[in-house]
Amino acid sequence: xxxxxxxxxxxxxxxxxxxxxxxxxxxxxxxxxxxxxxxxxxxxxxxxxxxxxxxxxxxxxxxxxxxxxxxxxxxxxxxxxxxxxxxxxxxxxxxxxxxxxxxxxxxxxxxxxxxxxxxxxxxxxxxxxxxxxxxxxxxxxxxxxxxxxxxxxxxxxxxxxxxxxxxxxxxxxxxxxxxxxxxx
Length: 184
Fold this sequence. Notes:
This protein is an alpha+beta fold. Helices cover 28% and strands 21% of the residues.
């Protein structure tokens, strides 16, 4: 017979507790716990690497409205329509284009968001998240802002990670502003 004393916390619960930053007050802990849950999902379910939780803006140094996660997905998440046309002309497959660092905004399904709140998040981030390790970043074939295949285009973007009550995480790509539609 199993008693309550025999039960161990889940791997996710242990991970969230271990990642709790010093000095985080209880009212803000749920935001950090949500970010840790999304980071855990990206790392163990979607094979992302170089993951990190950000609490302050990378360009202003001020606090972000909510903690954000950044990381490197195993494959490209988004291809800009202009780049898609170049790839078709040069017969380049999407799998041959290197992945890019992405911002991820952890949210809960029950949260209410407005355009103003999303604008505050976009105002606090750079187009590309900072690298965890500058040495490994210099070896990557990613060419930010140079306009060729593999370069980042289209301004700021992030992935909205929405966590449901059953811990399911759904991801949506969001852009800051209007983006040209893709060709099908």
